[in-house]
Amino acid sequence: MNTEIRYDVKDMPKAGLLLGLSFQHLFAMFGATVLVPILVGIDPAVALFSSGLGTLAHLTVTKYKVPAYMGSSFAYIAAMQLLMKTDGIAAVAQGAITGGLVYFIVALIVKFAGNAWIDKVLPPIVVGPVVMVIGLSLAATAVSDVMNINGQYSLTNFTIGMVTLLAVVLFNIYGKKIVAIIPILLGLIVGYLFALVLGMVTGQEIISFAGVTKAAWFHLPPMQLPFLHYGFKIYPSAILTMAPIAFVTMTEHFGHVMVLNSLTGRDFFKDPGLDKTLAGDGLAQVIAGFFGAPPVTSYGENIGVMALNKIYSVYVIAGAAVLAVVMSFVGKVSALLQSIPSPVLGGISIALFGVIASSGLKILIEDQTNFDNKKNLLIASIILVSGIGGLTLQISGLQISGVALSTILGIALYLILPEPDTNH
């Protein structure tokens, strides 16, 4: 068991602290969760609503044993953009639900076939580098948020990002009591206020409150409820395009569960079981599809928060989910959250994604992995470069890249390559 844990999975912080910790998780997932629907052409409030509802569903299915937050999945963006141009939101919804059904099918197979195979195909030499890839593959996005605006380098953005990052570091290292527990939230507040003051001093509009001014206090998310609105119709293109992507996000799911296992000192593959975690993901996707929102998946950003503050309480995650649902109805608060500048989110992300990558390194150290072993050296090297570099396989519309493809390569190499001859 990890002795550094501040709040374990079943521990509930006091009400005031619980609220602050939950807001911290809300901020961590917010940028990515609302970006996906914006890119696809779906109202972000719907995505926020379904992410909260999906997270609560996932917690329920996993018996409140797995602290995982469900946010909009990037893996489906290209498929959703294509379907929105051809068949519209009804097809996207059907694709999301189909992806969720794929999770259910695999969960049933795991339930009856058992999970003894997990230790055989996912040893530390595969798990460690894959976890590192999960963090490092997101590094370019975080750094770009800090440095650039509209594709151009911005010293202003860089400064804001570095101030935010420094605040997170200082609060985490030198903070006492509650300050040390919510360094991400406090860092975000410092970064936001700094950006606001810098904008006033330089005359730049770094933060715009136009959206907040226009927004109503009560805002009903424009949920399409596609099956009720458009009637029932089969969209073969949606099924064939989005269902296979579920296998891609499934490998990311394995990776995230591995990180959580390492952080909490538990084995969620066994309790509540991989079948439960997969079914939880599947149900969350079905819910997202029913409301016309992008498919959801477990979020590395929130895992990064937990890795940094050593708080793994499922009640904190549930609190963030409830806040997300509430915020989707409060127009002004939702607009205020959307006003957070990208360099502030980027500065926070540098810390979060780096901590995830370091967790992978920790797995290898604790296993005392021998890198004089050529098999180990090659597996780790290939996983890292293919995953971080974004190696992609495309076959007639199906795309496997990054974390998913590097995981598949790592597993295949581990099973195929012979152990080196120790006699030479």
Automatic annotation (TrEMBL):
Taxonomy, superkingdom: Bacteria
Transmembrane found in the keyword field: yes
UniProt keywords, alphabetically: Membrane, Transmembrane, Transmembrane helix, Transport
Keyword Transport: yes
Gene Ontology CC, one term: plasma membrane
Transmembrane segments: 26-54, 89-110, 122-143, 155-174, 181-207, 227-248, 312-331, 343-365, 377-394, 400-417
Subcellular location: Membrane
Protein family: Belongs to the nucleobase:cation symporter-2 (NCS2) (TC 2.A.40) family.
PANTHER family: PURINE PERMEASE C1399.01C-RELATED
Protein name, per record: Uracil permease
Organism: Streptococcus massiliensis
Organismal lineage: Bacteria, Bacillati, Bacillota, Bacilli, Lactobacillales
Gene designation: pyrP
